[in-house]
Amino acid sequence: MTCSASCGEAFTSSLMAKVQAVLGGLIAITGVAMVVAGIVVVAIDCSMEKNWVLLVWGVVTLIMYGLVSLAGISRLRAIRGQASLNPCLEGLQHIASSDGGHAWWFAKEIVEAYTDTTGCRETPDTIALVLMSVRLGLCVIYGLIILFIALRACCKK
Asked: C-alpha angle with apex 125: 116 to 63, nearest 5 degrees?
């Protein structure tokens, strides 16, 4: 078996689909928490200048990583022979590749709100900062695991 063949098998294996489904799902759940917290921050109308940032980022996260998780589940079902692979989900999951293009802006706004606000330090700013940290941490873990799987498969001797 050549290196390129083993690399291809790694990305169609059930391990990759499980990682995609589980970690994509965890990040999507973080998006749900961000949406709920964003609604609360908008409702209490604290002194944050852009109090809608957490809500919008939560919706974007939920959509992007929900599609990643659903594509992983679809791939697992196809590997097990329970259903055919859903080409629509396989294509839409790549929307998550745009995550780095906007995540920096949302993170910047949350960090600026945390450092600039003095009146509401305990509630909305801290909640937004914690949820941002959890989301970005899960994205890093997701990326590192995918990288490890790819290196392990492609660098076997």
From this structure: 120
